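Support reply, case 0932

Customer input (verbatim):
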Amino acid sequence: MGPENTLILVDGKPVGSRNSVRYGWRGERDSRGDTNWVPADQVERIEVIRGPAAARYGNGAAGGVINIITKQAGIQTHGNATIYSSFPTHKDEGPPNA
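Our regenerated output:
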């Protein structure tokens, strides 16, 4: 079985990106497409299931499954906010009202 029968998952979910799978000139599915959509520094591990896994993952997994597990997000949240404002000013001159 070739790469056209390999299912690629990210965190257990099928990849739907058009860059993850490319199609050959005869229309065959080729999962060796662009893998730059998963930054390497965000990958925790990669699980590979060899052989037919269609019973568990569907007919796109007849050649095997590649599951890319990403790192979990940290607990700390960082951010920055800047607020700009402008207020109209009025200046009146003259004697005070008595």
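We compared this against your earlier run and they match. Two observations from our side: The mean pLDDT is 75. Residues 45 and 67 are 9 Å apart (CA to CA). Please reopen the case if you see a mismatch on your end.
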